[in-house]
TrEMBL record:
Family assignment from sequence similarity: Belongs to the FrmR/RcnR family.
Gene Ontology terms for molecular function: DNA binding; metal ion binding
PANTHER family (UniProt xref): TRANSCRIPTIONAL REPRESSOR FRMR-RELATED
Any coiled-coil regions, as ranges: none
A biological process term (GO) from this entry: negative regulation of DNA-templated transcription
Protein name: DNA-binding transcriptional regulator, FrmR family
Pfam families membership: Trns_repr_metal
Annotated InterPro entries: Metal_Tscrpt_repr, Metal_Tscrpt_repr_sf
CDD domains: CsoR-like_DUF156 (cd10148)
The organism's taxonomic lineage, starting at the top: Bacteria, Pseudomonadati, Thermodesulfobacteriota, Desulfovibrionia, Desulfovibrionales
Amino acid sequence: MPESAAEQEKIKIDVLKRMKRIEGQIRGIQGMIESGKECSDILTQVKAARSALKSSTKLIMKRYMLKCYAEAIESGEDPVEAMDKFVTVMTNYME
């Protein structure tokens, strides 16, 4: 497996693990709301979940560059068009 393919797979596995943890955090927040926990405690957990999503997003963007952009170039797509697509995806994410 080429290095970038191995790195892509590693990132994929890492992101999936993070998503499962985030899912657990969200379920925990739901439980806190249902059981009437303090708002400050709930917001602390929401902040932690948002932080985890932000970290995961960085990895997903990295994987996008390694996988999607590289595949576009390998398939003969114009590098400028491939970069424009990447910029569009990133810009849409930031909105």
